[in-house]
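User: Second chain of the day. Same drill as before.
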Amino acid sequence: MYLGLRRERLLVLLKEKGWGKTEFARKLKIHYSYFHRLLKGERNPGSKFFNNFSRFCQEQGLKFEDYVYIKIKSQ
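Assistant: Same format as last time:
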């Protein structure tokens, strides 16, 4: 099992808040190119992203659960 990112919902959040991708990456203390690859589905988010994003959600009054899901690896 691992966490997955609901990319579409995250993009909606950025649009609603008027945040650019570069600005949002800075808020999460991650590199823009890494964030860009996450949004395109070229990279899977790791623990650093989820830790920073969880903290960010708490600070902004957002529900972390709205933007992530649990993915189960099939064997």
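The domain at 2-71 is CATH 1.10.260.40 (434 Repressor (Amino-terminal Domain)).

User: Great, on to the next one.
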